[in-house]
Write a structure and sequence with these properties.
Blueprint (H helix, E strand, L loop, with lengths): L20 E3 L2 E3 L8 E2 L2 E2 L7 H4 L4 H4 L9 H4 L1 E8 L2 E8 L7 H12 L4 E6 L2 E5 L2 H10 L4 H8 L1
Parallel strand pairs: 6-7
Antiparallel strand pairs: 1-2, 3-4, 5-6, 7-8
Length: 154
């Protein structure tokens, strides 16, 4: 499956507050979802802001990530980032919930195969996997507890 075969249809996890920006003078951020998210879809999709147009979660761009891990199914958005040209993935659940076993297994496979370093929050706590330099970087960038992450981003 390539990028063109996966769609956001039925998913709005990023609109629920993991993107930070504004749409027509209306700010959105964690704990402040986009006001244009109506009936589980974007009411201004054709005129959505650049921050929305340019965002692709890992599920959308990674053909190896199965349909069963779509953010709307697992209530977790996986955001791709880079550290010194090495990809890393940030796993952000919608709440302080446990990640699904399937998602945890997939995250571990990404790390074990050398495809990605990992920052994930599970049951409110942060887990970082990668070399020492990455762990040091991520430890400073991402707070230890999920509720602190939510507080800092609001």
């Amino acid at each position: 499956m390539n990028l063109n075969q996966k769609t956001c249809s039925g998913c709005n996890e990023c609109c629920k507050g993991w993107l930070i920006g504004n749409a027509f003078e209306s700010k959105f951020s964690p704990f402040n979802p986009c006001k244009y998210l109506q009936n589980s879809s974007c009411s201004i999709y054709s005129e959505r802001p650049d921050v929305c147009k340019g965002f692709n979660c890992e599920w959308l761009i990674n053909s190896d990530m199965p349909e069963s891990l779509k953010p709307s199914i697992v209530n977790t958005i996986v955001i791709p980032k880079f550290f010194h040209n090495q990809k890393y993935l940030v796993f952000l659940p919608s709440t302080e919930m446990l990640l699904t076993t399937t998602l945890m297994k997939w995250a571990n496979e990404q790390y074990q195969s050398g495809k990605s370093f990992i920052v994930l929050y599970n049951n409110g706590y942060r887990l970082i996997r990668g070399p020492d330099s990455f762990v040091d970087y991520a430890s400073r960038k991402y707070p230890k507890y999920y509720n602190v992450l939510l507080y800092q981003r609001s």
